[in-house]
Design goal:
This protein is α/β, with parallel strands linked by helices and 213 residues long. It has helices spanning 11-22, 36-43, 70-79, 96-107, 162-166, 181-189, 209-212; strands at 2-8, 26-29, 53-56, 58-60, 85-86, 113-119, 143-146, 157-160, 168-175, 202-208. Strands 1-10-9-6-2-3-5 form a seven-stranded parallel sheet. Strands 4-8-7 form a three-stranded antiparallel sheet. Bound molecules: 6-phosphogluconic acid (6PG).
Length: 213
């Protein structure tokens, strides 16, 4: 795997630049709060949005209008503003199997994203794959239910697995803030945290100066 670390002042701005040069059509969005500014900037771009499909890396099992919903955040920041097609995970039913069916209906047996956006948790988790939890080791499915997440919000989750998240031509971690210093160090050192298991064809880690210090 080809890997680069890019340290910048503005993670969202760099992410937009990477998005434009990758010119993706099938994109995986991450949840959490770091990507929101990136999504808002994407929404302002002139882009062939009607050719784009957005998928999700994970979801919290809450009502769609709940402020903890990853789909709600993406909807407000981006999806409601551009004519792209989106495939949110159903957090209300918390049904991993139906998202697996959605992906198989769309991709058959060859899952292939052009771009996957990844988050990095303070404990080294990514999507909803938490250290020490059994879902990190699942390789025979693309989507899992995560009954007990390792961190807040402590609600069940749905998550893509390591092989599904790795099925991308380009994977991009967005990393910002002081609490990401330690997991970023572990990721770069190749320690066995969930985030370090992702193996897209090419990986770019975009970190702000605080996280990379
Ligand atoms: C989630 C996530 C999660 C997130 C990281 C980073 O639903 O919680 O998808 O993996 O990306 O925890 O989150 P922040 O950007 O909020 O720090």
């Amino acid at each position: 795997m080809d890997r680069d670390l890019v340290v910048v002042d503005d993670v969202a701005e760099k992410a937009v630049e990477i998005f434009l040069s990758a010119a993706p059509r099938a994109v995986v969005l991450s949840g959490g709060s770091t990507p929101e500014a990136f999504y808002r900037r994407l929404a302002e771009l002139g882009y062939p949005w009607d050719e784009v499909e957005f998928f999700f890396g994970d979801e919290r099992c809450v009502q769609r209008q709940d402020e903890r919903s990853n789909a709600r955040m993406a909807e407000q920041a981006l999806l409601s503003k551009v004519p792209a097609r989106s495939y949110p995970m159903d957090g209300e039913r918390c049904d991993a199997r139906s998202y697996e069916d959605t992906l198989r209906g769309r991709f058959g047996n060859n899952l292939r994203f052009d771009l996957a956006i990844y988050g990095l948790g303070p404990d080294g988790h990514t999507a909803s794959l938490f250290p020490g939890k059994p879902e990190v080791d699942v390789v025979d499915r693309w989507v899992v239910e995560v009954r007990e997440p390792g961190l807040e919000p402590l609600v069940p989750r749905i998550s893509l697995t390591v092989p599904a998240l790795s099925s991308a031509r380009l994977g991009v971690f967005l990393v910002a803030g002081q609490e990401k210093r330690e997991p970023l160090r572990s990721l770069l050192a190749g320690e066995d945290i969930p985030a370090a298991r992702l193996m897209p064809e090419r990986l770019v880690i975009v970190a702000d100066r605080t996280a990379a210090d």
